[in-house]
Amino acid sequence: VQLQASGGGMVQTGGSLRLSCRVSGFALDGYAVGWFRQAPGKEREGVSCIVVSRGETNYAGAVKGRFTAAGDNAEDTVYLQMNNLTVDDTAIYYCAVGFDVTGCEYVDGGDLVPGYEYDYWGQGTQVTVSS
Question: DSSP code of 107?
Fold first, then answer.
């Protein structure tokens, strides 16, 4: 199983980026792809999740309304459109999949599924937002 994240870069506050995550060796149908980020000196945090086959998505409060997850099962690729970026969005962004992660809500509580539930991770792509 391999996940290839790409699309990061450097933008100014208010700018946009679209991240991509191509998954190979893992059939996405019915499974969630999670997006996470880790800023320097901070813990990894969940950002978003998508189950492409059901059109199910979920977002962290900090990005809701600004980030949009989408996907193409035929291409085994998911995307994270990030708009109105702020300096607080600066981080390395990772995508992940897991054999037990078939939804985007953790125990029906509305929260994102935590990272330890995922089995495979991409290498990360750097997003830097300057003021």
Answer: T
Kindly report the number of other CB atoms within 10 A of residue 100's CB atom. 10
CA distance 88 to 62: 9
Nearest Cα neighbor of 19 from 85, 65, 99, 64 is 85
CA distance 125 to 114: 19
**How far apart are the C-alpha atoms of 28 and 101, rounded to whole Å?**
11
CA–CA distance, 19 with 93 (Å, rounded to integer): 9
pLDDT digits (tens, 9 = 90+) for 43-77: 999 999 999 999 999 999 999 999 999 998 888 99
pLDDT in tens, 27-45: 898 999 999 999 999 999 9
Instruction: Compute how many other C-beta atoms are within 10 angstroms of the C-beta atom of residue 105.
Output: 14
Q: Which residue has the tokens 């977002």?
A: 59
